[in-house]
Amino acid sequence: MKARKIVLRLMVAALLASFVLLPESGAQTPKPEPMSMEDVIGLLKGKVAPERVEELVRENRINFAITSETESALRNAGATDGLLRTLRELAPKPVAVASPPPTLPQLQLSTTPLLTLRGHQSSVSSVAWSPDGKWLATGSSDKTAKVWDAATGMELLTLNGHKEGVTSVAWSPDGKRLATASRDKTAKVWDAASGKELLTLRGHKEFVESVAWSPDGSRLATASRDKTARVWDGVGGQWLLTLRGHKSGVTCVAWSQDGKRLATGSGDDTAKVWDAASGKELQTMPGHRWYVQTVVWSPDGKLLATASMDETAKVWDAASGKELLTLRGHKGSVYSVAWSPDGKWLATASFDNTAKVWDAASGHELLTLRGPDKAVDSVAWSPGGKRLATAGDDHTAKIW
User: Fold this and answer.
1) Nearest-CA neighbor of 199 among 226, 172, 174, 223?
2) How far is 61 from 42, CA to CA, in rounded Å?
3) 83 and 183 share a domain?
4) 157 to each of 121, 146, 199, 380, 398, how far by Cα in Å?
5) Is 33 found in the same domain as 132?
6) pLDDT (tens digit, 0 to 9) for every residue of the chain, 400 residues total?
7) d(Cα 260, Cα 318) in Å, to the nearest integer?
8) Among 200, 246, 249, 387, which residue carries the largest CB count within 10 Å?
9) CB neighbours of 183 closer than 8 A, spacing ≥ 6?
10) CB atoms within 10 A of CB 360
11) Domain-located, residue 100
12) Cα of 187 vs its chain's centroid, Å
């Protein structure tokens, strides 16, 4: 009896929908009311053939979603696979709710440079802020590194000594020394005030692509195209440890905040995490499709970010090696990535002539900084997180 009443109601609704009212009346043609799950189950339990139920469903539509629970109830009532396929096809689709556009709370970056640092004679491959934020260091393919006043843009020092291009610059934690890496297969340590050369680290068999100080300033790490990274005594320059495991040149190296781990990136498309005392490999992070150019630790030491020539940057869980986010938006190789000091944002530099700022939690792109039509090779946040420095193929560094 219940099934007959449902069929009758649906037939009456269909009949009303078939009437065409006169245009001058202004009335709208009534539409059949969608069927509820109770309607469908009532028909099936009333011994109405599933094929007839399917016809009624197509004529009247439905107003419920197909979930594991509703599917189970329908099967128990006698729904066939064919009817269930039709119900899934006609089930209302969830409406996506647009999320509000991301913002940059407490961060105000100018989209035009505040300062442009000119003086290098070739591409500027690396830029780094001093720990107090007063100075910038740059390294260039012109075989020099330079120190600049970050407030005025005035050039303070030029460090001459490398025989090939300088690939990387890094300040010691106390700001008194600078380390540089070079294609001449060496790294050097300099007095940051006078520019005097203090140490030369020799041992790599190919270009040295990256150099980094341990958090306490006692050790240095270098990365080389000879497929290794090395750890050195930061005072005497003695070679302490070699990290072996990458299948191609090692392009970058970074210390964790506690000094217990090192991260490296390589032309073998992976990043790795190592025990800094023993050299034991702890994690391998595959996922990029081309060279990993930069690797950096988040300020809390829980995450890693990588930049790659596959036009993406990625965020990883440092303990498990799990990939958490992929930042997509650049239209060229991503050469550099940097965390803001509070860990809220990431900045990237790319061959597509731009730098970008991203929300580090969601991966939303927040801001694009555009300079001359030249690749941007390096990006660095100021210690306070209020300014950004970039360096690139236009022979300059910029402060934003």
Assistant:
1) 172
2) 16
3) no
4) 15, 5, 18, 20, 17
5) no
6) 555 555 555 554 554 444 443 344 444 445 567 888 888 888 888 778 888 888 888 888 888 888 877 787 888 888 888 888 888 888 876 544 444 444 444 567 778 899 999 999 999 999 999 999 999 999 999 999 999 999 999 999 999 999 999 999 999 999 999 999 999 999 999 999 999 999 999 999 999 999 999 999 999 999 999 999 999 999 999 999 999 999 999 999 999 999 999 999 999 999 999 999 999 999 999 989 999 999 999 999 999 999 999 999 999 999 999 999 999 999 999 999 999 999 999 999 999 999 999 999 999 999 999 977 899 999 999 999 999 999 999 999 999 9
7) 13
8) 246
9) 164, 165, 167, 207, 208
10) 22
11) no
12) 29
Q: What distances in angstroms separate CA 34 from CA 41, 77, 248, 270, 339, one per listed residue?
A: 14, 19, 62, 54, 52
d(CA 17, CA 127): 72
Calpha distance 303→400 (Å, rounded) = 26
The tokens for 117 are 């640092």
Which residue segment(s) compose the domain that 322 sits in? 115-399
User: Does one domain contain both 287 and 367?
Assistant: yes
| 196: CB partners within 8 A, 6+ apart | 190
**Do 391 and 342 sit in the same domain of this protein?**
yes
| Token pair of 219 as six digits | 């050790």
Name the nearest CA neighbour of 107 among 392, 393, 384: 384
Residue 110 lies in a domain: no
- Domain end among 73, 90, 107: 90
